[in-house]
Amino acid sequence: MEIQRIATTPIEGMKPGTSGLRKKVTEFAKGHYLANFVQSVFNAVRPPEGFGGVTLVVGGDGRFYNAQAIQTVIRIAAANGVGRLLVGAGGILSTPAASCVIRKHKAFGGLILSASHNPGGPDGDFGIKFNAANGGPAPEKITDAIYAATLSIDEILTLDTPDIDLDRIGSHRLGDTKVEVIDPVADYVELMRELFDFPALRAAFASGLTLAFDAMHAVTGPYAHAIFERELGAAPGTVRNGTPRPDFGGHHPDPNLVHAKELLDLMMSPDAPDLGAASDGDGDRNLIIGRGIFISPSDSLAILAANAHLAPAYRNGIAGVARSMPTSGAVDRVAEKLGVACYETPTGWKFFGNLLDAGRITICGEESAGTGSNHVREKDGIWAVLLWLSILAVRGQSVAEIAKDHWATYGRNYYTRHDYEGLDTPAAQGLMSGLEARLGSLAATTVHGRRVVKADNFSYTDPVDGSVSGNQGLRVFFEDGARIVFRLSGTGTTGSTLRVYIERYEADPARLALDTQEALADLIATADELADLRERTGRAQPDVIT
Hints:
Distance between the termini: 53 Å
Number of helices: 18
Helix content: 25-40%
Strand content: 25-35%
Structural class: alpha/beta
Largest sheet: 7 strands, mixed
């Protein structure tokens, strides 16, 4: 089988972000765009002895262009001499399942095709990222090498072969490469059985525990049907929107209160089940809602850390916790009470990887609805729901009761995130640069009646390898312990998204049940005054509030 060498030239704008390269489908499908990036990955990560003895995992979230892109990846991988490919049947592998498969089969790494929670369809978004042998997103030294390779690429290696049948589990040969189409769910379900007490959860469902899980027509549908309905015996219909669709059913697969409003309405109704949950496009994020109460991702992380010992995998306690810098400090208070370390990292799951690999932490999470543990090296939506179900089953309390007990014990970090989406990029950058220029002079000043004690641009020094990551977000701290963080997101494909994170701590038992936006109203006004948000964004209010 003769290798084809296709001449090409570098294409601008291929620098991977916090979760790989994301662009519009139309851009990825144009010319050699996808092939250029895939070949650049192989050029950057090629071991000295070549790829002949390695295994590579390939799969995606089933969004539009996923199937065609995987065929391209398979041909380029074979032409570059990869010895063995494990490909999810139907082109499907959730991001946490891909991490699981990489780790179980001791693969060299994996290519995951997803734009996570971004919309799909012919006019939607597409993405691709390389995960390393630990199952986690490639660290910056690897993504930097991949980007450098995109700037010097001059040829693509591929094969002129028919498409592999991805809908049938089995083995194929492409030259010297063995292509195995695998069940995308089996390895992941096996891992979940090891972490959680499935017989106890099945008994809880049989005794009346109820769940509504919205898969949002995204990748977690097959996993949720297999685990919640078949393994645990939840009633048929527990999983909603459980068939993955290339356009996610015309909806936005982001598990927040705007895009999962149908689930929110159910959970606020008299007919609400015990737990409402959702996951996103590639299955790594989660939404948790109890009957009559939304649990913010920051509070969910803290509650899971405080109660992890109720699941078999964490019965002996946790080594430590970590959170991204914009995530609220609620989990910090849990770590202090447990006497374990707590780390504050930049946004991006890859920053948790070193801490997990070094055994310094067990539980970690981000305010953007991602939580996970040391079982894989990605955030994991289904895992978070299973841990919540385990807590409910053991404690025999409602979600609201568990949350209120938590706040009574630790106090409450009132926290919100305001997103301004699709902003004019120069305007958004101007807002950030203007605010950053003022950081040095903000200390000891008063803004909207609050005294500033510190303001900086967050920089992180990795405690494991000593690497430094700067410019991670602008932080303003106030005398009463409140803080506001401003950050431009790197996960969108059109314009810029400004995220404003607002937080204050409340210890007064009489003030633990306030409406979050009301509790933070003065800080929200302070954020507006600090950054001149309305004038600079042209928006009277944020597009999304979580």
